[in-house]
Amino acid sequence: MVSNVCLCKELSQLRAVVLRRLSRCPSPQQASKMAHLANPPKAPSVVAYGQVNPVMIPFVKASKTAADMTKACYFCGVLLRSAEEATIPPKGKVCISTEIMMAIPEGHYGHVATVNTMARKHMVQVGAGVVDSDYRGIVKVILFNHSETEVKIPAEEPIAQILMDEIYPPSAVTWTKLNEDAQLPVIGSASAAGSDLTSAEDCVVPPGGQKLVRTDLSADFPKDCYGRIAPRSGLTSKNSIHVGGGVCTSRTEPIQVLLFNHGQDEFRIAKGDRIAQFIAQKVVFSAMKPGEPKNLPRSKLAQIWAPPPPAAEIDQFAKIRTPLSFTVGPKDKTTITIDIQQGIPRGCYMRIAPLFSLAVNNSIDIGGGSHYSNGATKITIFNHGTTKKTFEMYEPIAQVIFEKAAAPKFEPRETLDETERGAGGFGSTGIRRG
Questions:
Q1: 170-282 in CATH: which number?
Q2: Which of 157, 172, 365, 382 might form a disulfide with 168, Cβ 3.0–4.6 angstroms?
């Protein structure tokens, strides 16, 4: 067996030979190769979690089919794996068990996010996706299949990623009622990640359609956060309801909730019904730098390859603009590649989030969207509408948010500490009256 010392010596000698050969005829291309070899590029900028104290997360395996969480950690989260075989029907959904129970520390919640490759390949998206710190039940993952083809999920397959997002408690948000129809948000449990938003009107969300629902509320929250409007698990599991857009800034007034109905039945909402939850999500503000033009390899998974524009105009809470024109068909998806040069701030991951205006006007959503390195970044765009959407060159397609999250270190336990909520809450009530 060749030792590491010998291997390093051979690699060093090989590099010297290549440099000598290139130096005999230094064309522009060869000069570039010489510079690359003499000064190897640094790895892409990723989250610097090696310098951050990890957060201990106790977990319990409810059965032998559960994955070992201690071997699956990366950056600010962990891959969740299926503990069972499952099939997601076309235009349908399924709830898959991980057979894992965990105790997330206060000041955080488990953000269950879509695996980017599942969005690109199969148009699969996570529904609901909020695990509160006082929840002690088995973590389950709701998956929507927006494609026309069934998707088979083998046992032990990665089905989602759970990120330990940092948040402010619901009490940090000050609410104002804008008229008599508004109702102040309700906190479901003592350690809930967010507060439940209620409808200020009677309305109907048609099957396969969407509805912008009034709350007639405004919110004041800390400057280093934004308001994430997230789905309620009961509405997702029972009624196939998902939230579109979902990014509120301090300028958002009044707050409105865009609901997608991915089911086959109409969904009726009465005034006072709980329709979503509002989470004060901590972020790091950092100006984005425009991407430099370069040749990027065409991805086999990408339907459209997009070189970065001369001025990408990518900035915090602003917009990522497409460098070319493309079309997303009705009930279809498209993947493009954008070059993002900005490094990710320490203790954060990069979220590519949907734009509220595109969601409302064109039923556009982002598939996946959680990233841990910069550079060539694939963005998958879902069109939930019934008409095609054509994006012109430099038109906004999404926005970048640097979300603060903890570095998890999972520790196996026989039992977890008890909470008043316990295993209750996930999909237990569907719609709730205010």
A1: 2.70.40.10
A2: 172
Question: Percent of the chain, pLDDT > 70?
Answer: 76
Domains 49-168+408-412 and 170-282 equal at CATH topology level: yes
Is-contact 336 392, C-beta < 8 A? no
Show the tokens assigned to 134: 């006082």
Q: Share the mean pLDDT of the chain.
A: 83
How do residues 312-371 score in pLDDT, each as one tens digit?
444 346 588 888 899 999 999 999 988 876 678 888 999 999 999 999 999 999 999 998
> Bridge-partner residues for 381, per DSSP?
334, 366
Q: Which residues contact 271 (CB under 8 A, 6 or more apart)?
A: 181, 199, 200, 201, 202
Instruction: Give the C-alpha separation, 326 to 26, whole Å.
Output: 40
Question: Residue 50 gets which letter from DSSP?
Answer: G
- DSSP string across 83-128: SS-EEE-TT-EEEEE--EEE-PPTTEEEEEE--HHHHHHH-EEEES
Cβ-contact 128, 385 below 8 angstroms: no
CATH fold of the domain at 320-404:
Deoxyuridine 5'-Triphosphate Nucleotidohydrolase; Chain A (2.70.40)
- What is the total residue count of the chain? 434
List all residues 6 or more positions away from 336 whose beta carbon is below 8 Å from its beta carbon.
302, 304, 305, 306, 322, 326, 378, 379, 381, 397
pLDDT tens sequence across 239-269: 999 999 999 987 788 999 999 999 999 999 9
Q: Which two tokens stand for residue 259?
A: 């609901």
Which range has highest mean pLDDT (57-71, 84-98, 242-256, 411-425)? 84-98
Please give the backbone phi and psi of residue 101, each rounded to the nearest 5 degrees, phi first.
-115, 140
Class in CATH terms, 49-168+408-412: mainly beta
Task: Classify 313 as helix, strand or coil.
Answer: coil
Domain boundaries, the chain: 49-168+408-412, 170-282, 320-404
Residue 103 tokens read as 């105790």
**Residue at 236: amino acid letter:** T
Write b or e for each residue in 269-285: b if 16 or more Cβ atoms lie within 10 A of its Cβ, otherwise e: bebbbbbbbbbbbbbee
